[in-house]
Q: What sequence folds into this?
DNA sequence: GTCGGTGCAAATGCTTTGCATTGAT
DNA sequence: ATCAATGCAAAGCATTTGCACCGAC
């Protein structure tokens, strides 16, 4: 039912069209340009494949030898949201967390209250429930965010 | 199944013990004091009964003729979170939203993508699903946050 | 060659904190 | 009387923005 997803031992299901093309097409449709900096930001996001925050992304960019300013990184994050490639995933109010969603199944999160461990999972049942709730109330579902706060098996042993 | 909740036309199910006592007891257990300001903040939160943000709470306090500083309001919000009386409900990364939870059933949220309309609802099925997902993965559920992004019936007509 | 893009540093806006004063127990 | 709480204003931090220069189309 709920499928846990390791962020490390499996490749994400990529859509046929590479992400950079999707982004480039989006930019062109808005009369915007596909620059090296924007490509570098997207590359680093793909490299992290999962949940990330702005500061981490900056570090990843530096690690890969890319010299993109903080301002441009934030500006690109915003564009990628508009393009529907990433979305915000809020865990706390301190800072925004984002996740790559284009060409992926919706992923929900389970956070350990003791260790902070984060596990992503998918649940088709949840999506069905969401759609049912919307229909009952006359709304049209667009998306959702589901976060479970729990104690992980490892933390229980501590 | 999913029960929509109007925030206006019904009293919240209050627990037997008044909230102020719960708070006072919490403070005492921590060697902290129950001050007029803290009581005023809690009163205003109860008056709003639902989701609120810090700035709104300040306004509610002023409306009721209470003179509580911004600093104290934020400090009290933090204490109320520690006491398990309110929790954060994140809708966007701009600012924190909080909701009163003590003595209430867990409430989830449906936000209209077009009008920003917010509806709270309860779904026992969701909680059951949450528990099932946790059990399957060996975790112990503590709480959850579920937000549906959708288009409301009124917005569809626009 | 033209706009839009970039980096920098300054500005924002929510939230937190240091400090002198006030007040609950 | 004591020790924490308050209010104010200043500080923090993530994020945004103004502006002069740069570069993709």
A:
């Amino acid at each position: 039912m709920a499928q846990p997803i390791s962020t490390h031992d499996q490749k994400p299901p990529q859509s046929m069209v590479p992400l950079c093309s999707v982004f480039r097409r989006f930019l062109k449709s808005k009369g915007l340009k596909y620059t090296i900096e924007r490509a570098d930001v997207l590359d680093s996001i793909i490299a992290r494949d999962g949940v990330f925050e702005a500061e981490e992304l900056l570090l990843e960019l530096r690690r890969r030898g890319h010299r993109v300013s903080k301002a441009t990184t934030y500006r690109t994050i915003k564009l990628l949201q508009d393009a529907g490639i990433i979305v915000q995933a809020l865990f706390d109010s301190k800072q925004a967390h984002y996740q790559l969603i284009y060409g992926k199944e919706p992923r929900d999160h389970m956070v350990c209250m003791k260790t902070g461990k984060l596990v992503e999972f998918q649940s088709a049942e949840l999506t069905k429930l969401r759609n049912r709730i919307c229909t009952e109330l006359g709304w049209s579902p667009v998306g959702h965010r589901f976060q479970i706060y729990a104690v992980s098996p490892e933390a229980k042993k501590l």
Q: What stands out?
A: Residues 31-33, 35, 37-38, 67-72, 75, 93 of chain A lie near DNA strand C (CB under 10 Å from a C1'). The longest helix of chain A spans residues 124-137. Chain A has two domains: 1-104, 105-158.
